[in-house]
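#onboarding

Welcome to the new folks! Below is a worked example of what a typical request in this channel looks like: someone posts a single protein sequence, and someone else replies with the predicted structure as tokens. Don't worry about understanding the tokens yet, we'll cover that in week two.

Example request:
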Amino acid sequence: MIENDRVNWCDWTSNGGALEYDLSYLHPELGILLQEYQVSSTTYEGKKIYQSDFYLFEVDSSVPRDFRHLPTQIKNELWEMVFAVKRRFFEEIKPEIVEHFIDQEYSIEKRYKTYCDKLNLPDYEIDIDKIRRTITYQKKTTLTGNGGGFIFTRRCTPVAPAASSAPAACETRITLFSRPYSLIKY
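Example response:
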């Protein structure tokens, strides 16, 4: 879905960075989409935690703008591009943990459903924190070797048709292992 000719520049690496994408073909008011990823901290295991932010700019503007007034069809295409750019980051960088802060007054539950639908990544668990207004993707792990201890997993899947406002269903499992274990990415 991303047309490489419309990528103005991209400098992201495992240390973060950004991609700028030309949106002028969608609507005369639209200029660019800027998607940024910054490493905010690391886990005790040394995994980088990225924060994700995107901004929309009008043509020849340096100030981000809200485009809620645009027709629904244009907004839908705009969201498709936002999530296509996000997906590209996951495919190219393969981050361990990414936090998406939802700062709009938009319902966090509806936005969570949108993320489940539009950014469905089989190698990642997706979680929602309503208090912090955060949607987090964390790379799945699997147990191997002389395993043991506790493991907490959460799986979310949409349970209603895309047009429905029903939230995604989540299943939480806690499993006890009797031997020490090591976690390995897959």
